[in-house]
Amino acid sequence: KQEVTQIPAALSVPEGENLVLNCSFTDSAIYNLQWFRQDPGKGLTSLLLIQSSQREQTSGRLNASLDKSSGRSTLYIAASQPGDSATYLCAVTPQSGTYKYIFGTGTRLKVLA
Amino acid sequence: NAGVTQTPKFRVLKTGQSMTLLCAQDMNHEYMYWYRQDPGMGLRLIHYSVGEGTTAKGEVPDGYNVSRLKKQNFLLGLESAAPSQTSVYFCASSPDQDTQYFGPGTRLTVL
Q1: What share of chain A is helix, strand, coil (3-state, %, to 5)?
Q2: How far is CA A113 from CA A19, A86, A110, B62, B100, in A?
Q3: Degrees, nearest 5: CA angle A58-A3-B101
Q4: Does residue B1 surpass a pLDDT of 90?
Q5: Degrees, nearest 5: CA angle A29-A31-A34
Q6: Which among A91, B25, B30, B45 is placed 20 to 30 Å from A97, CA to CA?
Q7: What span, in angstroms and rounded, lies between the C-alpha atoms of A69 and A38?
Q8: Apex CA B6: angle with CA B89 and CA B91, to 5°?
Q9: Residues A88, A22: Cα–Cα separation, whole Å
């Protein structure tokens, strides 16, 4: 059974720091992996989607990498800002045609001004 | 273009009561999903639909029923609410197997 883990559960950093959030999954047979942002009391917003054949995706200050063989993905946030404070979740789609995301428990990030 | 909307935003039920949560999307997406989010457990898939008139079980379907009579609507029903169903419920829709678009959530408390 696919399990997705995110460490750390919470992280507090000063503004301007570069930081890395980690996501690990137990079964390397995935269709894609996605990183989401969730603000308190709100829904999820997709940040980056990495297909199984890709190694990384970039959007602005965000860069997500995928290493299927080791079951790991990282989300790199450059020059963090207080507005980046949110919970970040990763999710994997186990295989094509299943239409099911398996979510991690999230990392709650706080960027201090 | 409202995206994905959920009704209601908040609800308090007593044990044994029933209710229906409504999810609506105006993006003409084929696929729709219902998740629940509990502290420390991430999001878990309850039921999903791959098109109008279809439904399928997700990871935690017990105690819930769903219907997709119209393409734009996906209803989640609780026939006899239990305290274990206290949670935040999210609906999502997608045009394919990639990006899902989420609604703002419904916070349900069962006393």
Answers
A1: 5, 55, 40
A2: 15, 14, 10, 45, 32
A3: 50
A4: no
A5: 115
A6: B25
A7: 28
A8: 45
A9: 10
Tokens of A7: 């460490």
Among B30, B38, B43, pick the best mutation site for testing chain A contact (most A Cβ within 10 A). B43
Is B43's CB within 8 Å of A43's CB?
no
Calculate mean pLDDT across residues A86-109.
Answer: 87
Cα–Cα distance for residue pair A43/B6, rounded to 1 Å? 11
Place of tokens 């890395």: A20
Residue A82, sorted as left (phi over 0), alpha (psi -120 to 50) or beta, turns out to be alpha
Among A101, A103, A107, A108, which would you mutate to test the B interface (most chain B Cβ atoms within 10 Å of its Cβ)? A101
Beta bridge partners of A66: A73
- pLDDT tens for each residue of B32-45: 999 999 987 789 99
- Which member of B42, B50, B98 has the closest CB to residue A104? B42
> Under the phi-then-psi rule, with left for phi > 0, alpha for psi from -120 to 50, and beta for the rest, what region is A41?
left
Share of chain B above pLDDT 90, in %: 88
> pLDDT tens digit string along A4-61?
999 999 999 999 999 999 999 999 989 899 999 999 888 899 999 999 999 999 999 9
